[in-house]
From TrEMBL:
Residues annotated as transmembrane: 12-35, 55-75, 80-97
Organism: Gossypium raimondii
Pfam families: Rce1-like (PF02517)
GO terms, molecular function: metalloendopeptidase activity
Protein name: intramembrane prenyl-peptidase Rce1
Catalytic reaction(s) noted: Hydrolyzes the peptide bond -P2-(S-farnesyl or geranylgeranyl)C-P1'-P2'-P3'-COOH where P1' and P2' are amino acids with aliphatic sidechains and P3' is any C-terminal residue
Domain named CAAX prenyl protease 2/Lysostaphin resistance protein A-like: residues: 18-68
Keywords per UniProt: Endoplasmic reticulum, Hydrolase, Membrane, Protease, Transmembrane, Transmembrane helix
């Protein structure tokens, strides 16, 4: 009987520890995504500030990003959204330098 009690406690402990591991990976994955997104946005804001020479451009970009939220990278079975995302990324890369010229 005592052995069965220890086995039951070990089973409960193993299931709880596996839940903690799963929760830890989910939280660390989300925090990693948030940290990566923050680092990319910080680099972009710094680029805007250095390129334009004023604080208005990074402040407007920050307000816009706060309004829009995190981007949805992929939606299953929604081809138009994925095409629009790729078109937006390509146009952003193509227009980044011409639209941030200091003489504008």
């Amino acid at each position: 009987m005592l052995t069965a009690l220890f086995e039951e406690k070990r089973l409960v402990f193993d299931s709880f520890s596996s839940l903690y591991v799963i929760a830890y990976w989910n939280i660390s994955g989300f925090l990693g995504l948030q940290l990566d997104y923050t680092a990319v946005f910080g680099s972009y804001s710094s680029f805007l500030f250095v390129r334009t020479g004023n604080l208005v451009a990074p402040l407007i970009a920050h307000a816009f990003c706060n309004y829009m939220g995190l981007p949805v990278l992929l939606i299953p079975r929604k081809g138009l959204v994925s095409v629009a995302f790729v078109a937006g990324m390509l146009s952003f890369a193509w227009l980044l330098l011409p639209l941030t010229r200091p003489d504008l």
